[in-house]
Amino acid sequence: MTDALVRSPGITRVVPAARAAASEPRSSGVARDPSVDAIRVALLVVVFALHAMMVGVSVGADGPVLQNAIEHQAWFAPVSWVVQIMPLFFIAGGFSSFHHWRSMRSRGASGAEYVRARLERLVRPAIAVVAVVAGSLVWLAPAGLAPELVATAGFRIGQPLWFLGVYLATSALVPLMVRAHERARMLTPIVLLAAVVAVDALRFSTGIEAIGFLNLLLVWLLVQQLGFHLADGGLDRLAPSALWGVAAASLTLLAVLTVAGPYSGDMYVNLNPPTLCLVVLGVAQLALFQLARPRIRAWVERADASRLVSAVGERAMTIYLWHMPVLVALAGGLLVANAGAGLALPEPLSADWWATRPVWLSVAAAAVVPVTLLFARFERGRAHRPVPHAAPAASESRPAARSAAVDAVCGVAGIAVVLVTGFGPVQAVIALALLAVALRGSTTVRAAARSAVPTRPTGLRRARSRAGT
């Protein structure tokens, strides 16, 4: 096998083809940046650990209690500046989406094909988790579990789904936002920033909290746009001193916004709804990540961690979607053990509770592994060969674009149903129907594209077969 030339912003190197193939998603056609892949895995670990620490199980005067153990804790606000990593998650996603879409576009794919490819990758695991979780909760209610406890479990499981819904929406807009980046590299984020500030100002001045949820799209589109700036190599031209200055200025501005301004110092309060603070935090995280990229690349190569990073990366959405159901199931197991075997459950945040956290984290991590291996097939799907195109497409049909937009809206709406209303049987059926529409569109267009690819004349195929080509 020949060697592969791998290029990414700030690095060009030759690696053995077998190793390059092992570190690539199947049929992506896009050179990977090991620092971005590694940081996405690290961020996923942080999310899992944080959510595991939030699980508080105890027995109160009125019976079993399942709660967020660190919610409304004053000491958590400064900690949240470190563990609120969603901005960097969307920056890394923007980096990957930028390269993925430009690679597909260079092969002649349309924006609609890109959107449907992303829908297929993201909707499959969503269908699996909605179906299994809803079925399990429906079964638990008549099994004797208190209805309010079942409702709480459904709420806790559904909380992380906001990320999937927003990620679906921002991914569907990647072709449009990349075009805006290419035509107005600086103006695009400035316009988005002005819109974010306007939404926050209107929300605070009117006291209408619902206005803030407009930033569910605006904030994360802006942060995704930062990932485009990382992907196009623009940050590689900045000196380390300039990056340190950007990080320091961003954190200083964040301090002003939270101490003297109207924003909470807890970055998780600023997540719901998203505010300007997450954008400022994202700029700081981007600068610090850019400074750390050479060291992260060196570590991946020195530790030969590319296979591990690739294996986790291919299952990242499955891990994200299933870690909370696993945590809630384990919490339910503790309650059962308490009722049946008298297992002592320490009060959340007590000294005994903190002492048991290492064991809890280890058990939770071990439990997530087999669940991920079982359900990862829905995320990875079947290996698809890329559909060849004669030349880069200058435009795409309006019906195809409209159809892809409808599919994307159905996908986001399907997630929103269970996120807002819970995993009840009626809600689950509605959500699954919407997700099925989104998935059906992506699989239908892929099949149509394959059937439209012209085949070689039979004589030519036989001649090349005899020639060994």
TrEMBL record:
Residues 459-469 have a biased composition (Basic residues). The keyword Transferase applies. Residues 34-375 form the Acyltransferase domain. It comes from the Bacteria. Keywords: Acyltransferase, Membrane, Transferase, Transmembrane, Transmembrane helix. Residues 450-469 are annotated as: Disordered. The chain crosses the membrane at residues 41-61, 81-101, 122-141, 161-179, 210-230, 242-261, 319-339, 359-376, 404-423. This is Acyltransferase. It comes from Agromyces badenianii. One of its GO terms (molecular function) is acyltransferase activity, transferring groups other than amino-acyl groups. Pfam families: Acyl_transf_3. InterPro entries: Acyl_transf_3_dom. The keyword Transmembrane helix applies.
